[in-house]
Write a structure and sequence with these properties.
By secondary structure, the chain is an alpha/beta fold. The protein is globular, with a radius of gyration of 17 Å. The C terminus is likely disordered.
Length: about 220
């Protein structure tokens, strides 16, 4: 099974292809330009590099949130279009789950922290196998650390800026280094879920928001 995975939740976008749960190609997407302009060309180049055509793909996966609202919309709509055009299933996966999957086994407790701005983080807490041990949340990092035991392992783009605070509030905290690109681990995680019967048609794909988008009302 060939799966194309797309991640546009942060500024470190990427696309990847996995074959039978093994990543065979990955390409970074420079978000210095709009994802709406560069995402599909990146997919085209990646498939060409691997000697694959769109009809060789069996399914699609996308990080459905949390993250950049604009990035999410572009990534999800792109995967929906590819899924509809090829009549292949697609699957949305939490970016928090994907990041936790990269540090499985590093500690008895795994914590994913993504920058949510407004002095808050998107947070996920997992057991040693990467299974959620608490619902994901958006909150101040101090509130997250209040519920995390000593010796937890941390990952995500909000960790570096909060490392001193984490070390002060979580004794023995671990900080395994991982690539910022998520499409590869997304492809692996999605492969297992799709093999278990997850996924579905494009119209069932929805963004995963922990904070609702803020739309400015008209003066009227």
């Amino acid at each position: 099974m060939h799966i194309l995975a797309v991640d546009t939740t942060t500024t470190n976008g990427s696309v990847a292809v996995a074959r039978d749960s093994l990543v065979i190609g990955e390409r970074r997407v420079d978000s210095g330009r709009s994802y709406s302009v560069i995402l599909l060309p990146a997919v085209t180049v990646l498939l060409a590099d691997l000697g694959l055509e769109v009809h060789d793909l069996d399914a699609y996966a996308v990080t459905a949130g949390p993250g950049s609202f604009t990035g999410l919309r572009i990534g999800i709509s792109t995967v929906q279009g590819l899924s509809l055009g090829s009549c292949r299933p697609c699957l949305g996966v939490s970016a928090l789950d994907v990041q936790a999957s990269r540090i499985v086994g590093e500690s008895h407790t795994l914590v994913t922290l993504m920058n949510a701005y407004r002095s808050e983080v998107y947070a996920g807490v997992y057991d040693a196998t990467g299974e959620p041990s608490a619902p994901p949340a958006v909150q101040a990092i101090e509130a997250v650390l209040d519920r995390v035991p000593a010796g937890a392992a941390f990952t995500g783009d909000a960790v570096a800026g909060a490392r001193e605070k984490i070390e002060g509030l979580c004794p023995g905290a671990r900080f395994p280094e991982r690539s910022a690109a998520l499409a590869g681990p997304l492809a692996v995680l999605a492969s297992a879920r799709l093999a278990s019967g997850a996924g579905g048609p494009a119209d069932g794909l929805r963004p995963f928001y922990l904070r609702e988008p803020q739309f400015r009302r008209s003066a009227e």
